[in-house]
Each structure stands twice: as C-alpha cells, then as structure tokens.
Design a protein that fits this description.
alpha/beta; seven-stranded parallel sheet; globular
Length: 255
Amino acid sequence: MTTWLESNFSLLGKKALVTGASKGIGASIAIAMAEAGADLVLVGRSESSLESTRSLVEKTGKKVEVLVCDIQSRAEIAQAFKGIDQMGVDIAVNNAGSISRSPAIETKLEDWDRIIDINLNSVFQISQLCAKSMLQRGHGRIINIASLLSFQGGINVPAYTASKHGVAGITKALANEWGAKGVNVNGISPGYISTDNTEALRNDPDRNTSILARIPLARWGKPEDLAAAAVFLASPAASYINGELLTVDGGWMGR
C-alpha cells in the first residue's frame, strides 16, 4: 500500500532533465531525482564530463539519456533539443550557470554577453523548448536555479547579478502564463554553496569569515541541500506552488 509520503514526494514514472549536470548542484539534483524515482536526461558540454553523474544515476536503477551542447550557443541548444518533444520530459531544471568576477568599470562586454547567454538566455530557450510538450500534455514542472543575487546587488559581479535578476523575472512571467495550463514554474535561490563558483570566496580568509558570520547556520551550504528542495518542487507535494523563489541560504536573507 502506497503511503501519503510516498505518493506526494515520489517522482516515480517521471522524466527529469537537468542542465549543468556534470558536477556540483546539477549532479546532486540529478542523482536525488533518480533516487526519488525519475528517469534522467543529463545536459552538459561533453559526454565525458557527464560520465560520473550518469554512472551514479544508473546505480539507482533509473534510465539515463545524455544531451551534449554548449548552452551559451542558441544554435547548439536548438540542435541538441530537436527531439525533446518525443522524449517526454516532465521536469526541467535549468541549473547550468557561470560567473565572472570584476569591477563593473572593468567588465569586458564579451564577458557580460557570455554570462547573460549562459545564465539567462539559455533558461528561456530551454524552458520554451521543454514546455511545448508539457503544455500539450497539461502537466510539467520547470525549476530555475536563481541566486541570492536575484534580490541583492553583490560586489564585482554585475553580469551575474543582472542575469539572476532576470531568472527571477522570467520564472514569474512563465508561471503566470503556464500555471493554468498545468505547468508549474518555480525557482530556487541558493545561498553560499560550496561549489566551483564560490571557490574564490572560500579561499579569501576575510570574505569567508564575513560570509560565515552572517549565516545563522554558520556553515557553507552543500549541493545536497539544494537537491532536496528541487525534488520537493518537482513532486506532487508542491502542486500549489507556482511563481515562487525558494531561498535555500542557511538564513542569510533573514539576517
């Protein structure tokens, strides 16, 4: 007999697509969704970079497919996702992202364009491509990885901040258009998570100390902390949540 917990938090019978699934947050989300019952579509820049995540997903007994593309390129996304309608994707997680650190006055426009393309433009394009079949079936979940810098300005990361403000906006806009048609669109705003993107901050003794001093839980987050939130938003338990940004930050925003 299926329990209330199993029926409301299971992803059994679903197929989840995760971008940037080779490591860090994306890999943790992909593996957690497989453990919750979903088959996976992993998206990354090379097949070899996805091998570790593919292996861990396969160990759960779930099926896994791979889409190789550089999400900075609209053309590569269009080519890689050409057959997405036939893949039956129920859940799309726009996780892939990049960051460039420099004062605004020194930021090169090519760096600005690269960050906007990866962090924002790809989110809209992939959401649009995945949503077509979701809307036809009348059910789907799109989860966008935003940031604390969807709410704050940050320091020396103007392109990243602009892109993540954009992710917050597009999440709400798509939720307004697609919610009544069965496709819930939400975001997760990670706090300071121990990943490659935050390595420079963790290696700076002064910044590391000041960051930890503001986090009520007094630790850096782990990718696994976000995986649970993603599984929740993808599950039946979150069926009445739409257009929200779930902040997973150890209490940073409440300080």
